[in-house]
Hints:
Layout: H1 2-5, E1 13-17, E2 20-27, E3 30-37, E4 48-50, E5 52-55, E6 66-67, E7 69-71, H2 73-84, E8 93-99, E9 102-108, E10 114-118, E11 127-132, H3 134-152, E12 158-162, E13 171-175, E14 180-185, E15 193-194, H4 198-220, H5 222-240, H6 263-273, E16 278-287, H7 289-301, E17 306-311, H8 318-332, E18 336-342, H9 343-348, E19 363-364, H10 368-373, E20 379-383, E21 395-398, E22 402-406, H11 412-417, E23 421-426, H12 428-443, H13 448-457, E24 473-481, E25 484-485, H14 486-497, E26 501-505, H15 512-523, E27 527-533, H16 539-553, E28 558-562, E29 570-573, E30 576-580, H17 586-591, E31 594-599, H18 602-618, E32 620-622, H19 633-640
Parallel strand pairs: 4-14, 7-12, 8-11, 15-19, 17-18, 18-20, 26-27, 27-28
Antiparallel strand pairs: 1-2, 1-6, 2-3, 3-5, 8-9, 9-10, 12-13, 13-14, 16-23, 16-24, 17-21, 21-22, 22-23, 24-25, 24-31, 26-29, 28-32, 29-30, 30-31
Helix pairs in contact: 2-3, 4-5, 12-13, 16-19
Amino acid sequence: MRSIETHQLLPQRVFLWKDNVYIQYVYDGETFYFVASQTPDEKKGASYSLLRPKRASSSDKYASALPVTPVGKEWGEVVKETLLSLLPERAGEGRVVFIRNYETLLYRRADGTADLTDLSSSPADVRIVGRVSAQEFDEMLFTSLKNQISHSGTPYTRFLLRLDRVPLTPFIYVDTEKGLMTALQMPPYYELEKEMGRLGFSASFLWSFVVKSHFVGVIKAPFTSVGRLASLAGGSLYTALPPLSGDLKEVPPLNASGEEMNLAEFNAWLDKKVSRQNYKAFAKLLINGEEFFPHFILASQRAKHSIFVRAYIFTTDPYGIKIADLLKTRAADGIDVRVLTDELNTVLNSAKQPQLNYGPDFVMPKNIKSYLRKKSRAKARTHYNTWATFDHTKVYLIDRELAYTGGMNVGEEYRYTWHDMMVALRGPVVGRLVKNFYEAWSFNGWGGDFAFAYRKLFSKKMRTANQEEPGMIDVRLMYTKPAAAQIYHAQLEAVKRAKKRIYMENAYFSDDRLVGELIKARGRGVDVRVILPGENDVGIMDKNNQIMANKLWRNGVRVYFYKGMSHVKAALYDGWAVVGSANFDKMSLFVNQEMSLGISDPAFVAELEERLFEKDFADSDEMHAPRDVAWTAFVVDALANQL
Length: 643
């Protein structure tokens, strides 16, 4: 397989048979094939299909198959010509170009010549003047190839393009007549090498969960440990005894008046009952990994003072290691790099298999904390999981001037396969988020509660605030932390006050009170719509989502299942938007550390509605009949209420 991937063994024949592409080889006198579907696998976030080996039959039953023309050198010329058409005119300018899964920067050097480099290795002084998505680049390549074919006079419309420098993807199949372009990938044909074996993983898990989280964690943070235990017990009791809420006797028509809740009164209620942390900011939506990660990579490349990462999960798959390498490089440049992630998930992710293909030389590190620290000036700490609680917050900070927050962790599923969202923030709100980070960083050092208290009361290092500028909007910070379920109470009140619409998208939906209030809102004529993932990474929550979906649907709520895994945590209540890290489950709403933003700016709300909700309604399957639910549904519901 390695010889095929590197084109050391060339195909003897390529053809199409029963909608599959066959690539025929002869090795040591024996004929065999590699077969792939010509239909792309859209679940991987791009057009991919896996090559699989197949022995040749004794008789040539493929004699009448449709021929496919292999293309070698010419393909490189097509790519080169397409890229050159995107090259900026001025020296020192560059354009971000997504070539399949590869984030690249195409720029013009000072001498006027062109250069193409991985985005994480791009020069920091290049001015970005544009961006070309993977889909746009594929379409441009397709058009270029079609034009070249028409000028060459070839009668064929099916081509196999050889890729010499793309790891694990030796070919692209193109059908110019059908408009198909599918990358053909090699299957994993070697065992993943890991620094940590099974015995090491078991020992690390016990050390992290038992010793660190429930011995060291309690000693260094006794007050927080008591608070978390109380929150866990209170949240468990609260969710175990939800109020009885029956079905609507009749589902009314939607309100036609267009009236919405009074935002001034609602914001006054939030100031009094929930949170006064209201700051000015410029806010920019970054939907999916293709928007967020390149933005973060470029900002990290240009950082002058600091890069802080507070993430629930930081994986050791190839993409996670790519980001880690960037952080280590910036730390070597003298940038203050600090990464704070979850202790238990740091261990658990060392046992995960990468979802996407990895190269033969890839060795999965023991864990991300040790990898970041190894031969590096980067600092890394983990949040201990006392009483099985977590810091589920996701905040990324650059130079105390730029912040990102939302649902995305660091890893290949967030970059490539999951649907998710972040918000980029500039302005005075960033000063508050920097303060939060320093407090969390101090707490997760050896000082625990005492270091946190000192940092909160006496340190002024983080208090530098960015200036307010015209055009900035109000952004309210809301939290979940011990004895403060701000995110939950704010959204529950918003559901009660909504008059026109409630749009929600969340992966884990298990709060019975919230479901009951949504049904009541629909009974008031509110347009209530909920988007759930069609594929869920947590089995019991997926089953619980089906139960909740049935209850909502039979009460007139429009329920949608996104085609794939949606990890988005967003909601619209008339003219008020909520985006952040919190799920609609017990742990996120009552126990874990979470942060969400409340925004009532009309332009932001309109963009969230158009770019996220309207698009996701269109990209999802709406529910038109009850889902099949097992007789054990009540057991699943009870268990899910405690997660």
